[in-house]
Give the backbone structure.
Amino acid sequence: ENAFIPQTTSWRAPGPAFLGASLYRVLGRRPSYFVLWNLIASLFIGWLLFKLAESPAAGIAATAIWLMLPSGIAAASLFGSELVHTALVLATAWSFDRDERLSGAFAALACLFRPMTFVLLGAGAFTAGLRLRRLRAFALGFLITAIPWAVRNRITSGVWIPFAASGGDVLARHTATLVPFEERDPSIYTPWREAATESDKGSQGLRVGFWNLRKVWESPVRGFSALGIGLHDAFSTDRQMVFWSDKNEIRRERVGLLATAFYAALWPLVAWGAWRRRILPASDGVRFLAAHFLLSFLLLLLVPSVDRYHFSMLPFAALTAGLALERPRRYP
């Protein structure tokens, strides 16, 4: 509701809007085309998981887990961008072994769908390590792809906004749920609530969000409670995906129970696969996905938010669980 429409906006990341507009322009105004694109993105993710896996058997298992993931099936039926964004994250990891500039470009495109994907920059730095040439190439690809939108925002709003002005507002809203209403400082909250422009609302939101986090951790009990919420968001069922995918309440309840059971079986397999992976030589693509998983997990711990925000972490979970299902082999 804070998009300040109908004038030109920098409030949200442009990726979903550009994708939907392009599909409508080429194929016509039918939401089913967006759903078809999501199905293609889901199959593309499965193919990338197979290519990234340590062996064909592990790849088949990982792809099967991904295609059976209840929230993934639900996302494929929605007019949403989670699957396309996740496909871009996988493409970033897969291409890092092949062309760092292309990988950086995919990372920027992923950020133009979900700004919180900036953790891909950390994953790229981790994977490149001390190989500065690779890191420079990754950063170059990222900047070449990301700068045009930032320049557009500078021209239209007079402010440098890399991806979306709403990031600070999102941080403020989600962290505000952790602070009791009577403890909220009006001198901090009022400028945010009364901000007249997108950029001001975003910057004031950042101020409120960091104030909220500091306030939360003044009390260890409240801080560890927030960590518990973050853990739940990172590893629980995608309630929003399930809720949005079916209007029938009874079917939603059944799908929700199925998803809960699926996750209960998945995470032990992920733990076992991670234990097995410690003795295997990993490609840069797998290391990249592992770094993205860990950084996203830490972000969700720090800022409890919405459970569907963990969606881009799930392919690595499927990849690791697939390794657990692979028949044991001897390694030199």
